[in-house]
Amino acid sequence: MTTPAPDAAPVFRMRGVAKSYAMGEVTVHALRGVDFELREGEFLVLLGPSGSGKSTLLNILGGLDVPTDGEVWYRDQALSGADRNRLTEFRRAHVGFVFQFYNLIPSLTARENVALVTDIAPRPLDAAEALTLVGLGARLDHFPAQLSGGEQQRVAIARAIAKRPDVLLCDEPTGALDIETGRQVLRALRDIHRQTGTATAVITHNAAIAQMAHRVVTLADGRVASERQNPHPADPDELAW
Amino acid sequence: MRALDRKVLRDFAALKGQLLAIATVIATGAGLFLAMRVCLHSLQRAQHEHYSSERFGDVFAALQRAPEHVAEQLRAIPGVQRVQTRVVAGVTLDLEGVSDTVTGQLVSLPDHGRALVNAIRLRRGRMPAPGRTDEVVASEAFATAHRLRLGTELGAVIDGRKQRLRVVGTALAPEFVYALGPGMVFPDDRLFGVLWMRREALGPALDMDGAFNSVALGIERGIDPTAVVRRVDAELARYGCRGALPRREQVSHFFLSSELQQLRTIGMVVPILFLIAAAFLLNVVVGQIIAGQREQIAALKALGYRDREIGVHFGKLVGAVVLVGLLGGLLVAASIGSWMIRLYSAYYWLPGLAFALDAREVLQVALLCGAAAALGTFTAIRRTVRLPPAEAMRAEAPAVYRRTLLERLGLEQLVPPAVAMVLRDVERRPLRRLLTLAGMVAATALVVASTFMIDAIDHAMVISFGMERREDVQVTLTRPRSTGVLAELRQLPGVLHAEPYRTVPVRFRNGVRHRNGAITGVPREATLQQVLDVRLATVPPPPDGLVLTRKLAEVLGVQAGDTLQVDVLEGQRPTRSIRVARLAETYFGLGAQMDLDALCRVLHEPRTLTGALLTVDDDLLPALHRAVKATPAVAGITSRNDALRTYRKLIDEHLGTSIAINIAFSLIMALGILYNAGRITLSEQARQLASLRVLGFRRREVSAILLGELGALTVLAIPLGMLIGYLMCGLLTEGLSSEQLRIPWLVAPRTYATAALTVMVAAGVSGFLAWRRLDEMDIIEVLKTRE
Ligand SMILES: Nc1ncnc2c1ncn2[C@@H]1O[C@H](COP(=O)(O)OP(=O)(O)OP(=O)(O)O)[C@@H](O)[C@H]1O
Ligand SMILES: [Mg+2]
Most buried of the four, A21, B182, B261, B385, by CB within 10 Å? Predict the structure, then answer.
């Protein structure tokens, strides 16, 4: 993987971001003051135990959620304090999402699921082309129920990249998959990253996957616990699970 | 096509059973609304057009005889614009091949030009030629009923003289849109017809040269007809006027306008019931769809779809249901509407009645359905659209179940766990059960309310033709006669028994309140005519004093024991004070009864009669009819059987069909609601039910749980629906009753049974469908899907 320059401009910047949920009498602090960056061309992995706030962080980056406190910037655009419509426009224009449970529309075929995005993006890839990129060129007209978990996740990836997003955010893309299928999905992500250079953040529980990344950020209890550069990102095929 | 629109189609296909059930309910509501509106407007248009082009009058008066120059005095009444004097007469007709006695009304046509008021519209043939005394134009109703061809000859007895008449044309007239012959409760175009004749022919025949006995007046816009009525009364009193009538009391207009009023009311209420049902169903079903698609919605939002786009997306699904419903509604409207028009044309003879869907009305109904759908789904869609995406991504928090009331009361030993499961679910979502219940209650009530008319009218018929009157035929005389006529009548072939009666046209007055009507004198020894009190018990006519119809007493504001002023509108026209002896219940007309001798005493007359009731040997009936036609004193003869037959025909041909349609529609409503409720309960409880199966419950046991709830709801809904239906009938009797026809508030057991059966069929069918689904349920599949 091409390593981005260490001083590459940040796509996302977070300063002192906190997120808490009031649940009756108790308040759950999902994030407790996080400083974080995602840089141009970077492939980043977010690690951390369950409940450490990874999904919350990713959702805030992607404009699905807003922080209770702190600042979030996308390039020169402040996301903290933006209203729901601004956030929608931001997601629509810049973000590609991949979820742990794929979240495909079951009533639409693979191609149509991707078309959902190409319909609203200004300069999208062709839906079939995006599916070919993830190795599903032959399964265009299959419904999600006719695809395996890994195939569904690859459709989700195709759907995320079809708009040529500026950032790709993946929340446990291999969480529900076995090793081999997980590898396939990671390979698809890596290939796309290579071809497009899109800044990519991937959440995982699996420390092995971290070997693929340029940089690994570990969360614990709503804070950044550690951060480490990886000068030699590994190929998915070499990963030891 | 955009991928999101494809999803609309696929979602529709996936839920087609439920959505089409809703569309059917919409189709019914929209179809009924359209059909009734279009009918109403067509009738109104035709009425307006007919009235104005034939110059229907505003005030009418019948009198004994007045010289033509009196018309000048009438024309001088302020506000009167046009005056048309006429000569009219009752006539008995003799048609080839018709043994029944047919009566008619002869009406004169002006010798020059069209009538200034109450003209006729020629439909076939021509007007009678000048100088021809035998040519007539027949009412289209009569001509149609007898398939009269132009040139057909009729035998007629005019004022005791036999004459032959030739039909040279047919016509419609605004004063006979609804043509009720004398003594008729429902129109029978076979037994009663209107014939128009030139004044120069009819006048001399009736000894009315240079005189008139009927007048119609047209008044200026904005002039109060009651003032004119009063003046006309005053001018014509000494010419034997039986009381001038404003248009609203003119028989034909009265029936037509009450019909329109009814149509307007029912045309609003019934479709709105259906649209409420549709709104409710959409609310429940769309709510269910949206809940099931929470994560899909979250994904769409994450992909960058705007709130509005997602709202529109679900709006399209709802729109598709409404559109299918509307298209179905057009079909329903087209079939019901033309049927309704045919029904109305059979009773109301208006030119240009046709069923034509009009873009404005279609648009109106589309807006109405759209509004109902929006009302039903707006909040559900809005709530989803506004759900923050990060939250939507998380599955909905597991429902919080509580111990049921039963259990909290410590009665849990009484309920097996499977039943407790259902009960908890019912307690958790009481609203939906309540709405389902409401739907079934509405369906039951609708059947009761739409069917009870037959019970009510049947009852009225039984009272009028079974208890009040028991004759075979009624003979009416051309004018009051002495009792000698009775002996003559008894000589006629087949007559077993004859009983006199005497009707006197009067005006009842109590202070400023007044009504025109008639008093019928009933002989004390009568057996064929009875006086009934308010509880419908037979009572002997009181020795003096009036037995007043309850409705008339109400209109006049009097009670038993009060005294009424009675202006007699014939002969010497005396005014008398008569005590109201008691009140009676009758359903047709505004009448009063009195002991015959007491009545004659009041009139200072010896015993006279205007008609008689006869019992007759059936075999000799045709001979009797023949003989009657040859008896000059007799104006007409009507048979109780004919009246009952006309009534039966009305019920069988029209009311029966419309009630069958109503039942079918109620069934559709109940089915739509129950089917959807069943499907939703099934999908909500599928996991629980599947778990029970895994635990070893048999199919039958699991079905029993599901169907038990449906059964319980049905058992609860039926009596409630009957009660509400009964109350609705009360409102309807109020709304549909008029002074002329009162509809008793009563519902027969068979109507309740029909209603119960309808809802039970609906419950059975939807129960069966749910049971089959449950039976086919793939346990593994259900348990595997994420919640
Ligand atoms: N909408 C919410 N309401 C209440 N608490 C929430 C909500 N979303 C997240 N949390 C809480 O915030 C904390 C962080 O959640 P988050 O989903 O970010 O964790 P995570 O690191 O992604 O965990 P996992 O690896 O299990 O997905 C958890 O304790 C979670 O219960
Ligand atoms: Mg997570």
Answer: B385
Radius of gyration, alpha carbons of chain B: 33
* Highest mean pLDDT of the ranges A189-193, B273-277, B283-287, B564-568: B564-568
Question: Pairing between strand B546-549 and B513-522?
Answer: unpaired
List CB contacts (< 8 A) between B305 and chain A.
88, 92, 116, 120
Name the amino acid, one letter, at B24.
Answer: T
For CA atoms A54, A57, A62, A66, the dihedral sign is positive
- Mean pLDDT over A36-46 rounds to 93
Nearest CA to ligand 1 atom 17: A55
Query: Cβ contact (<8 Å) for A101 and B3?
Result: no
A to B CB pairs, distance under 8 Å = 84
Token output for B347: 């009773």
Residue type, B267: G
Task: Provide the 3-class DSSP secondary structure of residue B508.
Answer: strand
Burial class of residue A17 (count of CB atoms within 10 Å of its CB; 0-12, 13-18, 19+) = buried
The strand pair at B591-595 and B513-522 is best described as parallel
Q: Is the pLDDT of residue B787 over 50?
A: no
| Residue boundaries of the structural domains of chain B | 1-58+253-397, 88-207, 429-469+642-787, 495-616
pLDDT band at B769 (very low <50, low <70, confident <90, very high): confident
Q: Do B7 and A105 touch (CB under 8 A)?
A: yes
| The pair of three-digit structure tokens given for residue B213, joined into one six-digit string | 């006995």
Closest Cα to atom 29 of ligand 1: A51
What is the structure's pLDDT at B309?
Answer: 92
Which residue's alpha carbon is nearest to atom 6 within ligand 1?
Answer: A21
- Which ligand is nearest the CA of A49, by number? 1
Per DSSP, B588 falls in state: B
Q: Is the pLDDT of residue A80 over 90?
A: no
Alpha-carbon gap: A62 to the closest alpha carbon of chain B (Å): 8
Contact status, residue B56 vs residue B118, Cβ threshold 8 Å: yes
What residues does A198 pair with on adjacent strands? none
Find the residue in B nearest to A89 (Cα).
Answer: B304
pLDDT in tens, B474-504: 888 888 888 888 888 898 898 999 999 999 9
- More confident call, B236 vs A209: B236
Structure tokens at B38: 């279009």
Which ipTM value was assigned to this complex? 0.89
Q: What is the pLDDT of residues B194-213, one digit of tens each?
A: 999 999 999 998 889 999 99
Bridge partners (DSSP) listed for residue B497: B615
